Amino acid sequence: MDQPIVRVENLSHRYSVNWAIRNISFEINKNGVLGLLGSNGAGKSTTMNIMCGVLNQTEGNVFIAGINLQEHPKEAKKYIGFLPQTPPLYPDFTVDEYLRHCAYLRRMHKHDIPPALEEAKDRCGISHFSKRLIKNLSGGYRQRVGIAQAIIHKPLLVIMDEPTNGLDPNQIHEVRALIKEIATDRAVIFSSHILSEIQATCQEVKMIEGGHMVFSDTIDAFNNYIIPNSLLVSLAAPPALSELKELPGIINAENAGNGMIRLSFSSGPDISEQVAAWSSEHGWRLKELIIERSSLDDVFARLSGKSS
Q1: pLDDT tens-digit profile of 163-217?
Q2: Which pTM value belongs to this model?
Q3: CATH code where residue 298 lies
């Protein structure tokens, strides 16, 4: 394809007098999973709704396969599949009835619908539920039906708004695997405010905070921001916290509950070796040591320029 799958140019949107997003720009040129990361209220859903044509932007443009979404919405939407945070399911329909209805809404030719229906069900692992009412499916399988409706017309781009929200750990693992498999032959945008979801699923990350794009790079580059900055230690014979605070590289020591002490440090990861050596030297009898990493709030603050 000569044109990017998606091109977002200076996208801005205002609700009343407040800007929800401001000057968001990026491109997607290849298949794979892109993570849209941000805290609740950061502007993720606004951005995705505009990209799907659900919401008209105040400023800027979105191009899908080179087609201006605002100027030619019907043509552009042929290339988009969308799974909102709450899947748009009809609980009294069977799986087949619902997916067939979605195919008609996508204006698929009637001769193309049967094979597309079977392919979407097979890909999402729901073929054995074809005749079952959607209201009788588990949460994980309902989500699979939602994903099936988003891919039945074979779009170039699938946008998913927090698709693992509310699922149990096994369902989350299954949906992650399904998303990765779908992304082998199309671009997928996956939004979440949960860092572990982005890390487990995505190759690239765009982070929105306060309505602004504050990070755009690979997941490996993003992980460089999530560096160790504290230790949890359990000592059989701990010294006073004031004594721990005086150790080289330690900037704070506090009780963390359950007999654990949190040590915040400014030096490198080898601080854990130093703590073990100090424990041996002073007879603190180290029982457990856990390296903690920066919280997502810390990462948001650092990338958005709010950290001190």
Answers
A1: 988 888 888 889 999 999 999 999 999 998 887 788 889 999 999 988 999 899 9
A2: 0.76
A3: 3.30.70.100
Q: Checking phi first, is residue 230 left (phi over 0); if not, alpha (psi -120 to 50) or beta?
A: beta
Is 1 domain-assigned?
A: no
Cα–Cα–Cα angle for 92, 96, 100, rounded to 5 degrees: 100
Domain that holds residue 34: 6-223
Of 166, 191, 223, the residue at which a domain comes to its end is 223
> Smallest Cα–Cα separation from 244: which of 226, 209, 271, 213?
271
Is 281 domain-assigned?
yes
Whether 111 is in a domain gets the answer yes
Domain match, 291 and 246 both? yes
Which tens digit of pLDDT belongs to each residue from 285-297? 999 998 776 655 6
